[in-house]
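Schema walkthrough. Field components (list of strings):
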Amino acid sequence: MRIVIIDDSGARATVLEEGLREAGYDDIHLVPPRGAFVARLERMAPDVVLMDLGNPSRDTLEEMLVVSRALAKPIAMFVDQSDDSMIASAIDAGVSAYVVDGLRKERVKPILDLAIRRFNAFARMQAELDEARTQLADRKTIDRAKTILMGSRGLSEPDAYALLRSTAMNQGKKIVDVAAALITASDLLGGKS
Amino acid sequence: MTPIRIAFLGLTDAAVLVAAREKGFAQTEGIALDLLRDTSWATLRDRLVYGQVQAAHMLAPLAVAVTLGLSQQLCALAAPFKLNVNGNLLVMAPGFAAALEPDTNARLHDPLATAHDFAAAIGLHHRKPIIGVVHRFSSHALILRYWLASAGIDPDRDVVLRVLPPSLMVEAMRAGEIDGFTAGEPWGSAAIDAGLAEAVAVGERLWQRGVEKVLAFRADWLEANEATVDALVRALAKAALWCDDPANRDELAQLLAGPAYVDQPAALIERALAGRIKARRDEAPVDLPDFLLFAREATAFPWKSQALWIYSQLVRWNMVKPSEEAQAAAAAVFRPDIYRRALAQSDVPMPGASMKVEGALDQPLAIGAPRGAITLGPDRFFDGRAFDPDTIADYLASFAIDR
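Field assembly_structure (string):
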């Protein structure tokens, strides 16, 4: 079974491809959705096409599926329209799957299940990474604001932090937002920090 | 508060939805409106059809196509509210446009002459021109086909229509993958501003009151959630009035420019809102006061005749086999009954009829309305043909080119 993954994110496509190979599929091709990717895809004559739901080139792909004379069999989205929960979880995970007409459901389901799991895992990984980055950035901002307060008001570090926290609470804001405002104000006033 | 999620694409004509959320019109009606931006019509369609969102900012022809089972999963959709009229721009690379009328004001105001120039330009071009369209089931693609065919250009033989999402059009121009494109704003203006293209035709001169985006629901959901649908329609009617008011233009352009919405410069977005389109980067803008309508002339009213015009074009280009059932299903997508029900207690003027002859008005016309007065603007097609929804077969027979 020939599976084509259309994706420009190297990382996500790799995660998916690895999963498929571990599951025993070996005819897997990665195609980035750029330039004449549709012509490439036509030549490959895939049985299954997997694509990120957020990929802007989905309309281009679907147009090819409508007009292509090169593809022997029509390809339609998802395999079994009656399986609503499967389709819903695919959409939640951000996977769209196009499958050659006539391919049996039992043969496609494991591929789609795997794609959903891998897409979800990738999304979790990405979210954790983003969160870690944000936390790091927030901490740096708060540290800088504390330094400004310690320098200009002669506060100890815990007192500087307490002042930021109480200000944030009084204004209904996040500590990092108060810290960022303080840094901006200090920069405007020509303070060094 | 009733939570409602609506999917949209980053286009200027998502304005009414953005204003409904950002200016509190939805909240006033008890709706917690969440807007979800997509980058392809396919994904927006899937979210609607499979229930991830309750409604979508949809190309009117796509709503008809999904209902007729022409675009993946068949699903009956219902459009009780049009989000805008007009708003599209056809742009071509300067090299190609050099064979057209050089005075861009004259070029844009005489689409019939420009279509014939375009036919000549194809002959001068080194290969078939490739024109980007956002979707086969888009108003822009249908009116582009209509316009090309008026000058004897067969849109399936003499040019290549390539489907690309609006946000990728400018890059495709830069890479030389397409020679021009037609899309909703601000993407045409973005290509013009980058010096990659100039304006060749504007929607409001091709069909003076062209059907464009609708608010689409799944028909079963719409029937099961009357109160919520009505509240949303009321909120959108108020938002549309706000969007049409020139006093709010700057603020609206700023809102749309935000990273969550169109994510393009406000000055670029403002051109479509003001109806002042720069046809070339360094030229003074051309005045096109009907470039994009949100509220006036009962813009939002879903005339069934407009759904049927879409159907007629799908038949013309052999995208659907003509049948009584398909025609009835297409007409049923537009739901003036819901519009009337939702706005019954409001002071929004309401047309008495649900169908009209499209393209029959040369001059503004005051029409009878049960409440208030409505003046319909001129709605001519550039070739002077009128579409009578009662005689679709005759209408189609009047065209020289079809499939």
